[in-house]
Design a protein that fits this description.
Length: 247
């Protein structure tokens, strides 16, 4: 991990900019659960920030349940799906029992994600909105099909994170693990990618404007469109066609 690559935004405080970039690395999987961050002094030198700013950023990520900090052990990355009691393991077992059926997964998404978007529209902070906007902007010119899939997953996980309810973030992370087959490049097309990006922009706009009903509606429309696109792509694949895109 090249820590010097963390860019600084212009509209937020230094701690907020740092927390956004570090959170992004966790959301997109660059920083994996269990991975240990460099010592604070080393990070401040690489990032060119004060120790106070870094500690404030890390405190924000700890408050959001994305890292765990303990004296003598350092800072360790957590997954939003890491449960702090037995309920997390039970949830994972129940969700895992679906066998990865895409139809079942999308049905679950249609029930869970629209209310999550509505709640995020009421709770997302300006700092949170910057993260969502950056994710959507990158979707316009992804480096690859795989990169787009990573951005897509990070966008939906960020929305759940911005309800500021750790249980919803945990649930969404478990669902995201099961969604992976629906993001397979074999089931994706350019049309699906463009449609999804446009839908993400509408969801973001609704969240940013604080309109829960609109956010819920746009999220529901998006999942419905994803279902139709996957069914079409799967049929084309079965007929011998190939595709490239994302959800």
């Amino acid at each position: 991990m090249d820590w010097t690559e963390i860019e600084q935004g212009r509209t937020l405080s230094v701690p907020d900019r740092l927390s956004i970039r570090l959170e992004r690395l966790i959301l997109d999987g660059t920083l994996q659960p269990g991975e240990k961050l460099p010592p604070e002094l080393e990070l401040t030198e690489r990032l060119g920030v004060s120790r106070v700013s870094l500690r404030q950023a890390l405190h924000e990520l700890e408050r959001r349940g994305l890292i765990d900090r303990k004296p003598g052990r350092g800072t360790v990355v957590l997954s939003p799906a890491d449960a702090r009691d037995a309920s997390g393991a039970a949830l994972a077992e129940v969700l895992g029992s679906t066998g990865g059926e895409i139809a079942h997964i999308l049905e679950l998404r249609s029930i869970i994600e629209p209310p999550i978007a509505a709640l995020a529209s009421q709770r997302a902070t300006p700092r949170d909105l910057v993260q969502l906007e950056q994710l959507v902007d990158e979707m316009a010119s992804p480096e690859s099909k795989e990169h787009y899939a990573e951005l897509d997953r990070a966008f939906h996980q960020a929305i759940a994170q911005y309800t500021h309810n750790p249980l919803l973030a945990m649930l969404n992370e478990q669902i995201a693990n099961l969604i992976a087959p629906s993001r397979s490049t074999a089931l994706q097309t350019q049309e699906r990618r463009d449609t999804s990006t446009a839908a993400h922009r509408r969801i973001l706009a609704a969240i940013a404007s604080g309109e829960p009903e609109v956010a819920e509606h746009e999220a529901a429309l998006h999942i419905g469109a994803v279902r139709e696109q996957i069914e079409h792509a799967a049929a084309a694949l079965a007929a011998g066609a190939t595709g490239d895109g994302a959800d």
